[in-house]
Design a protein that fits this description.
The chain has 253 residues and is α/β, with parallel strands linked by helices. 28% of the residues lie in helices and 17% in strands. The chain has helices at residues 12-19, 47-53, 85-101, 116-119, 174-180, 184-192, 196-205, 239-246; strands at 2-6, 23-27, 42-43, 59-62, 106-112, 125-127, 140-145, 163-165, 171-173, 213-214, 228-229. The chain has a seven-stranded mixed β-sheet with strand order 3-2-1-4-5-7-6, with helices on both faces. It has a two-stranded antiparallel ribbon with strand order 8-9. A two-stranded parallel sheet has the order 10-11. Helix 1 (12-19) runs parallel beside helix 7.
Amino acid sequence: MKILVACEYSGIVRDAFIKRGHDAWSCDILPSEGDPKNNHKHLQYDVNYALDLHDDWDMIIAFPPCTFLCSSGQRWMNDPRYPNRHEDQRHALEFVQRIWAYDCKYICIENPIGVLSTKFMKPSQYIQPYQFGHDACKKTCLWLKGLPNLVPTSDMTKEDVTYVTLSNGRRFSKWDYDCSKLPHSQRGKARSKFWEGVADAMADQWNMIPPKRLITLSKPSSVCTNDYALQGSYKKISLQDLCKQMGISHTRM
């Protein structure tokens, strides 16, 4: 499949799908920090251009910036120091809605708990990183179109996560606590980095069969399969045998 991983510069999700044979591309205004051998498959520009210039994406997995959408940012909405906060949130919501409305069979939008649940729609699923083998808590929403809910790949529970308890009795996962101790300029990047275990689950569980293709031969053929329609008389053979006869490689997605 041809997959757009929107608003991703880490390359984590892109690389997981490439590893499984897909034509996956990340897109972000920042340069890619993923596997160097895959960084040529990074579109370093506004995601809107990727949507405008390409109309053949089979799947879109999007990570819209959560600055104006997450619950933690709502306390600044009426702060006089940020007079454009409501307008910024409106643009962020319009961006999410544009991705969702794109003519693509499979779409996933990821975001933390926030206003999307009330101003966009209820999530299809909530996930936690510990469900996929990570020692952390971060309740995350997934909005899914044409895709099944992710199935957890780890038997970890919330109680298996490492916690830090402060002197006032408040308890945080160690991952959350470590992020909070970073300089402010690094904190957001650390918190937004996606989880490799979830990326692997996406690539394994959303390993959809590519759309059917139509191949037209220049002369009648004696072969036909359920997946490929060929002109002329035919008989049914396997796709693997067909590819051998046509001299092309056969790779299952």
